[in-house]
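Researcher: Next sequence.
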Amino acid sequence: MNPEMIPTSFAKIATYSSTGNGLPVVFIHGNSLSGITFIKQFESELAGKYRFIAFDLPGHGASEKPGDAEACYSVAGYIKVIQDVIHHYNLDKYVIVGHSMGGNIAMEASPDLPGLLGMMTFGAPPIGLPPAFERMYLPNPAMGLNLKGELSSDEIQVLAHSWADENSIREKIIDLLNQSDPAGRSYLAASLGQGKYRDEVEIVKNYDKSIAILNGEKDPWVNVNYYNEIDIPNLWRGEVQVVSGGSHSLQLEQPESFNGLLHDLLEEIER
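Model: Next structure:
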């Protein structure tokens, strides 16, 4: 995955594109990570069929830090970046895939994306108003670290262990956590604390296209039973797709299962 630097409203960011010329798929990475966490999808046969586009949010991976950190490091700021990427690549119809925080951003962005044909989220329970964090998430000491600015080396290790089970994957995640701008986490935490986000439960309740929701069987953060509380009329296949053996980073840990589900969703959307 070789990056192309493109301008956005806040900073130049690294983007990654596949060789496929079919239906575009835009991937949104998790908090403090990078678009390269979708490398297993870009290396698959799907990337030769579909037009895969991933990117590093400002202050993440190979992207520049934003000039206005407070405005950028918020749900509204990240939505603007997504819109800039879509505009840059002249996408009129597309699907979005969002991992963890990227999935929450995808849900909140959906009302502002008229070309969106459907989406897939994983490790991203919809946040309602007021939020039901005690039911959404499992008890995990790493949860608070996702929104903490400066992290010690020990805290990064703890956080990386919650992202994935496999050592080789964790090592890459540690690198990405070290690369990420600590201000991204602290400003995002401040904006969320001020209630600067949409009611994602209402969004998915009223979403009129397919939304595929995946969750790892061994996800240490997400309480999969929480989804039973939410009315999602257009939930793909009528239920959350629980991936056997998967933790929080399904696209890296269980790429065959993940890619198979993605392929099936895209084929269905194309019909």
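Model: The mean pLDDT is 96. The chain has one domain: 4-270.
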